[in-house]
Amino acid sequence: MQHRSKAHDHVVPMLNAVEHARVLARVLASPVIKGPIIRRPNAVNLAERFDADAAGVDEMKRLRAKYGDGPVQVRLTPGRRVALLLNPDDVHRVLNETPEPFSPASLEKRGALNHFQPAGALVS
Fold first, then answer.
1. Using one digit for the tens of pLDDT, what is the confidence trace for 68-79?
2. Beta carbons within 8 Å of 124's beta carbon, 6+ residues apart
3. Is 124 within the bounds of a domain?
4. 9-66 pLDDT, tens per residue?
5. Residue 119 φ then ψ, to 5°
6. In this structure, is residue 100 part of a structural domain?
7. What's the total number of domains in the chain?
8. Contact at 8 Å (CB) between 99 and 83?
9. Rounded-to-integer distance, Cα 46 and Cα 29, Å
10. Which of 13, 15, 76, 80 could, after both became Cys, cross-link 19 (CB 3.0–4.6 A)?
11. DSSP bridge partners of 81
């Protein structure tokens, strides 16, 4: 879920540079390397050997202990932020606060669907 409103930035904390690196390495790298849709068996075996999923869980627990309930922002690229949900109840908050401050319209979704519905609304 993409976070896009600067007016609500104080409500959704932004991770610092070290935390960004930790999230990318410990939380996001494993599912990307293993294959988010079609699994890569060799990568899955490697991730299991290094217990990558446990490292991701530990990092999420660390962030929740520091930030409490509620999502945090992760900057993927300049101008592109996503909300990282730290608590299952965050799902309700994000859905209830869509499209502001949270937007389901990621660059990938807009690019893929723009060809078919250039003026359409995007709902996830």
1. 988 999 988 887
2. 1, 104, 109
3. no
4. 447 899 999 999 999 999 999 999 999 888 999 999 999 999 999 999 999 999 999 9
5. -110, 10
6. yes
7. 1
8. no
9. 12
10. 15
11. 75
Cα–Cα distances (Å) from 34 to 1, 26, 59, 80, in that order, read 21, 13, 18, 23
Q: In DSSP terms, which residues pair with 80 in a beta bridge?
A: 77
Residues in the chain: 124
Q: Tell me the three state secondary structure of residue 118.
A: coil
Of the CA atoms within 13 Å of residue 92, those in its CB half-sphere come to: 4
Residue 43 forms part of a structural domain = yes
Is residue 121 within 8 Å of 104, Cβ to Cβ? no
pTM equals 0.70
> What six digits make up the tokens of 113?
């669907």
- Rounded CA gap, 103 and 105, in Å? 5
